[in-house]
Amino acid sequence: MLIEVKNLTRKYSRGLRHITAVDGVSLTVGKDEFVIIKGESGSGKSTLLSMLAGLLKPTEGSVVISGENLYKLSDKELSLFRNRHIGYVPQGHEFLSELTVYENILLPQRLYNKASGDVKDRVIEILNRLGISELKDSYPSELSGGERKRSAIARALVNAPDILLADEPTSDLDRKNTTIVLDAFSEIAKSGTAVIMITHDDHISSYGDRILNMEKGKLI
Amino acid sequence: MNQNDISLKRLSVINLRRHPFRSAGLIVMTALLAFLAFGGSILSLSLDRGLESVSTRLGADIMVVPIGYDKEAEGVLLRGEPSYFYFDKSVETQLSEVEGVDKVTSQFFLTSSNQDCCAIPVQFIGFDPDTDFAVQPWIKESYSGDLGENSIIIGNDILYDGSGIMKFFGKEYKVAAVLDKTGTGFDTDIYANIETVKDLFEAAKDKGFRFTDDINFESSVSSVLIKISDGYDIDTVVHNIRMNVDGVQIIKGKTITSDISDNLSGFRLVLILLLLVIGIFSVIVLIMTFSLSVNERRREFGILRSIGATKGMVVSVVINEALIIGAAGGILGILLAATVLFPFNTYISNSIKLPYLLPDGAVIFALGLLTVILSLIIPPLTAAYSAVKISRAETYLTMRDND
Ligand SMILES: Nc1ncnc2c1ncn2[C@@H]1O[C@H](COP(=O)(O)OP(=O)(O)O)[C@@H](O)[C@H]1O
Ligand SMILES: [Mg+2]
Q1: How far apart are alpha carbons B336 and B340 in whole angstroms?
Q2: Which of A1, A49, B7, B112 has the most CB atoms in a 10 Å sphere around its CB?
Q3: How high is the ipTM of this complex?
Q4: Which secondary-structure segment (H or E) carries B399?
């Protein structure tokens, strides 16, 4: 299995109250799978996804991706692992605003490597695949919602990750752009990168190998 | 580097450019600190060295001048204000007999505001080669060999065309050497042995300079320098002189500079306080600005972390910004101080009316280096807290829209 999640729990404290945002979630996802997690706002989807991405320490439980137990790794190991194996598309505020789309997309590659011709070709190829190659020299603030999402997906794919995690990538998009993004995800999954996306939109039904529902921190 | 190539280092530069006024403000503030630290320490060292050279050039434990002329004598030594005053040569013998006095030697002063040579008035000091212990030792540093008749040795500030000859009162004298700069009144002095000064004295008289009218050269001296015997302290000898010799003003070699030393400590205190106040203020401003600037960019740092940046990388982005500010400010401040201190060296020296002698190049270089090092250390330290704090925050929480 590519991803094995066991008993994943995350509590937040808000003043004196404790909120269990994710409550004992266990889950396995295989290579090539396109998984959609649905749930109402506040059900804990983003918290779950960020724990899968290695961005938030669980209160309990474990996340194992490609054999690595994420929260047992040192910061350096986890950062490198994230860089190499996990593509994460956040919900809003995806970019460094002073860099062009191209520079933003190149950045994950440049954190650990010297620039090379190969990676530049790869960036162009990904941009072409997502139909945004003409935006390469634009700044993030100049993009439409759909273009921003596609650019963020391009960045998540630049290091050819094992898994792509997307937090409500379609929430701000119209029908046409939603279709473009979902088609892209299907294709990405087919080409060997597992995709987990979350959404609060009930109308997405014709996509995904598996659709899971989340309610009050649990998968049902 | 290609314009499309992106690196963490460029992120720091981009962040600084995003707020040009803020960044410029921080650089100017750091520059001011470096300016004060570098400029102030050089000023202070220059004054120290000036004083030190007064003591060593005086070359005597005690200087005795006619009563009432201590201010004039000080003016000659410290500020290069030419003056002349005389008392009877018999004082020299009286002084040599006082208990605790080891050696005595006398000097004869003359002045000139001769248009032939000097924009500034000149002080002639005639010493007695047979008894002198004060002047010749350091003259030797610039001129070896005996100073023959009609030969003069001139201070560093005397305007001299290098021809080997200078004219005073219509007569020519051979310039044997030019002394090193001392930053003191000695720089406008001209030294010669007593025979040469006698010649000058006669020449002045021939030219009708009235100031020499009422004295007899052979029986007059301007000052007597005293070296005390081993085992005696200056105050005891000063007391003995007071008891035995009338009509003289006693100047202790050390006290001549001590008033100025006191003023200097005052100046240094003001400088240190100023540095401290501006330093603390700057550190607070830097800490607050970095905290603000890092907080504004919480989400951007979250994005960096999410794409695989380590805590160390996030810290380095912030620290690099601080380093750039420190380097720019430090170098700017030093350049500014250098622009003020070095070209205007003589002007400063003249206008503060205190002995003033720049430290050696090596010392100046070391001070500059130290200032740069401090400028490179302090701003990163002020940024460190904010940098470490943001790097340790849970990435997902820094990326969320709220808080
Ligand atoms: N940083 C936080 N501090 C306190 N409570 C939080 C925090 N983040 C999320 N929560 C709470 O946890 C629950 C789950 O939030 P979230 O994971 O964002 O859900 P979803 O993405 O499904 O809308 C919500 O009740 C939310 O208010
Ligand atoms: Mg959410």
Answers
A1: 6
A2: A49
A3: 0.95
A4: helix B395-399
Task: Kindly state if the Cβ of A45 falls inside 6 Å of ligand 1.
Answer: yes
Question: What one-letter code names the amino acid at A134?
Answer: E
| Cα B223 to chain centroid, rounded | 28
Determine the pLDDT at residue B179: 85
Q: Does the beta carbon of B370 lie under 8 angstroms from any beta carbon of chain A?
A: no
Domain limits of chain B? Answer: 3-53+260-400, 68-246
Name, of A47-51, B7-11, B180-184, the range with top average pLDDT: A47-51
Report how far apart, in Å, the C-alpha atoms of B92 and of each of A204, B130, B225, B226, B243 are.
115, 14, 9, 9, 15
User: Residue A17 Cα, ligand 1 centroid: separation in angstroms?
Assistant: 13
Q: Does A90 touch chain B (CB under 8 A)?
A: yes
What is the enclosing helix (H) or strand (E) of B112?
A: strand B101-112
Q: Does residue A46 line the site of ligand 1, with CB under 6 A?
A: yes
Give φ, ψ of B220 to 5 degrees: -120, 150
Q: What is the DSSP string of A5-41?
A: EEEEEEEEEETTEEEEEEEEEEEEE-TT-EEEEEE-T
**Smallest Cα–Cα separation from B389: which of B279, B297, B327?**
B297
- Tens digits of per-residue pLDDT, B275-323? 999 999 999 999 999 999 999 999 999 999 999 999 999 999 999 999 9
